[in-house]
Predict the 3D structure of the following.
Amino acid sequence: MPLLEIRRVTRRFGAFEAVKEVSFGVEAGEFFTLLGPSGCGKTTLLRMIAGFDLPDAGQILLDGKDLAHTPAERRPVHTVFQNFALFPHLTVAKNVAFPLRMAGLADAEIRRRTAEALDMVHLGELAEHYPNEISGGQKQRVALARGLVNRPRLLLLDEPLGALDLKLREEMQMELIKLQREVGITFVFVTHAQNEALALSHRIAVMNAGRVVQLDAPSRIYGFPASRFVADFIGNCNLLEAEVRAVEAGRLRLHVAGLGEIVAPAAADIQSGERGLLALRPEQVRIAAEADPGWANRFPGEVRDFLYVGDVTTYQVLLDNGYTLQALMPNAAPGRARFHETGDRVMVGWPAEAGHYVRD
Amino acid sequence: MRRLPTWLMLAAAASYAFLYLPLIIVVVYSFNDSRLNAEWVGFTLDWYRALLADEEMLIAARNSLLIALVSSCVATLLGTLAGLGMHRWRPAWLPLLVITPVAMPEILLGVSLLVFFIQLMHLTLGFLSVVLAHITFSIGFVAIVVRARLAGMDESIFEAALDLGATPWQSFRLVTFPLILPAVVAGFLMAFTLSLDDFVITFFTAGVGVSTLPLQIYSMIKIAVTPEVNAVSTLLMLLTLLLVILASRLDKGFMKGSA
């Protein structure tokens, strides 16, 4: 039995259906992420799990028990809010102690566990400071300590890294993973940042327009997107409109208008004659002056533009038939940041096992 | 910081002089050793001594303070509830109902309250009618201050309290109330000041039974502006000033961290 079970949950606001018949389960100890663009219903779903909102239809079960009649304050579920929502009139220590006080623990026990929680997030010295006296990253840690201190069954995190700058966000990602592993509490994390979701989660539910469109491990979501939306939303992707010409053992022969035949890895249940998309990640596309014999698919083109961002360079290559492909090259060779200039004639290509056919 | 141009400084100085010179003159003459507000003769505290011996004045002062205290306490309670209600449920009509008495001309409010008390409630004018009238016009001020404070706060703080296991009552007592307390106290001080200084509405609703400081001062200057009036005005001014300073201090972030 999953720890948290969402059963056909629907939530309407007037005529607008924010969440449409969503079902999934979250296992105990899991780091589970709801990922989607703003307005996809992920935050509405999170608020229903927390108890700030109720479903119009469907059930939310925790440990097999329906939560419909349990108000927020009696759910063993805590939330880390986007802007931390620390109590400004209480010190860091009193913020962290708040859920313990509400649970009616003895003073000595409260003091012990508050100190423990603050140590866990390395904030022991700031115990007597007020929230307006500490930095954004420190507030984030206080919010985490406060959410975890009385060991809820479930910790909900609503875009908790959104308010932090890039460097700090990466640091906090590491800490979140470590923290979750240490405390073993189930995390349900909401974000619109796909890289964050990929980095942190055991499993990701990708949401769009109120529905879960794909639920899988990060590497599956990235490598085998189930739809155009997922392929496009997660990372960068070349999407080629294709028709299936033949289904062979382990591979597909696709026809792309204007390009010709492409060999791609097989996917389940593909019928010859159907139309779809070839999703090809930029890092799967090779680019060189001469074609490599290992490339099953190869096309000539011209470098139109490139974006140098330090560790990698992304090239925009205009193929002779008018398609533009993105190719990503790591700048691994020392002293050589650039391989090709704008206007260079190049060959692009990829092996038969690269790319993923998506039914559209 | 850039310096202001000279002409602007002069204009500002002139404006402040226009506003405060009359007040300063009242204060100065309250210490003047002469019956006439004409020329400075010498320093004396006689007029303050005379005040303390003036039975009617003392009764009026006691009435004023008592009315201010009672009306501002009740207005603070009701105004705070109104502010909380306006913020929580955002009813379209409540702000209008609460704020109208604030914007209404005092004379109108005074007349309508008089008619209401006498014809509809058959109330004998006196202490009670004045208190009720003062509560009526003070509620709006308290409600506005409390609502402004709430509007400036992050809504998720209140959800966080419930989320972390506080019952709605605990959440109010431990989070909402401490956070709006500065506004509540500021609202109380404002209501107290308004009540203490009010003349028009009090004039209509006091009848013959009860006199307050503003009414008493008015009845004295009908004869002449005596130094005694200057003295009582100075004291009233001092008290008002103290309350206003206290109120503005409180509402501007007396509490640690409002963000």
About this structure: Chain A has two domains: 4-229, 236-359. The first helix of chain A runs from residue 42 to 50. The longest strand of chain A covers residues 297-308.
